[in-house]
Specification:
Blueprint: H1 15-32, H2 34-53, H3 64-94, H4 97-102, H5 108-136, H6 145-169, H7 172-189, H8 201-207, H9 211-223, H10 231-251
Helix pairs in contact: 1-5, 2-3, 2-5, 3-5, 3-6, 3-7, 3-9, 5-6, 6-9, 6-10, 9-10
């Protein structure tokens, strides 16, 4: 009997097609969540406007928006790739969504990739909005767009890996509490709003190794001072990205 048009063809779809489909699904879910949009869009925007227009913290860099805009861009990446993704994925795991994905042909690495890509799509919208606000406040960025792109992509990979690691190993309630706590701590101690040189030397040396510090300092070096390629900050982010995504792929539990 010859094969007909409707003959079933068992087997999984190519990994690339599965990643693309899952990325579209993850992006739709992320953009529909009002609480996530509050965390990823409203809070960074308010911080940028408030600290740029009200003399609260001495940034020591002339116009406050020049110092704050790169830090807020870094905060936007962290809020989406780490905090928001960790909380959303943690509750997907609790409610059995990930358990059902676990019995599908979708590999763990493909799920991690799709979630990271959906975060990148959301970040594009964030960056457009925050950049527009910063320009309205008088921001005049410098530096290479390629260096900025490298920093944002590596920062996204680093925070995405850490967020998925947390969501895939802790209970949903613990992930909710821990992700918000880390967000607040890094907001204060990650060089986003308060310059790291305001901390004691020993503390500042440790804080410089955090992914949020590397991302905010790298963006600031490029956009504020016109530096070419901040290799040190890129190296820190690359290490965090490799460790975070590797650990998430290895230890992520579907249920």
């Amino acid at each position: 009997m010859s094969a007909g048009t409707y003959t079933p063809k068992p087997g999984a779809a190519p990994v690339g097609r599965m990643v693309a489909a899952q990325t579209v699904f993850e992006t739709r879910m992320l953009l529909r969540n009002g609480e996530q949009l509050l965390l990823t869009v409203v809070i960074p925007s308010l911080l940028l406007v408030l600290f740029s227009t009200v003399d609260i913290i001495d940034t020591g860099s002339g116009e406050p928006v020049g110092f704050l805009a790169p830090g807020v861009l870094a905060l936007a990446v962290m809020s989406t790739a780490f905090t928001g993704q960790a909380i959303a994925t943690g509750f997907e795991r609790r409610y059995g969504v990930l358990k059902r994905l676990g019995v599908s042909p979708l590999p763990r690495s493909a799920l991690m990739t799709a979630k990271t890509l959906s975060v990148l799509v959301t970040e594009v919208l964030q960056i457009v909005l925050l950049t527009g606000i910063a320009f309205a406040l008088g921001w005049s960025p410098q530096g290479s767009p390629v260096s900025v792109l490298l920093l944002l992509v590596l920062g996204t990979a680093a925070f995405s890996g850490l967020g998925l690691l947390m969501a895939g190993t802790l209970r949903a309630e613990a992930t909710l509490a821990a992700a918000n706590l880390v967000f607040l701590l890094l907001l204060v101690g990650g060089g986003v709003i308060v310059p790291l040189d305001r901390f004691p030397d020993a503390v500042g040396s440790v804080l410089e190794l955090l992914p949020i510090s590397a991302l905010s300092d790298g963006l600031r070096d490029v956009l504020l001072t016109g530096a070419s390629v901040p290799w040190g900050d890129l190296g820190v982010l690359a290490v965090w990205a490799v460790l975070g995504l590797g650990a998430a792929t290895r230890f992520f539990r579907w249920e």
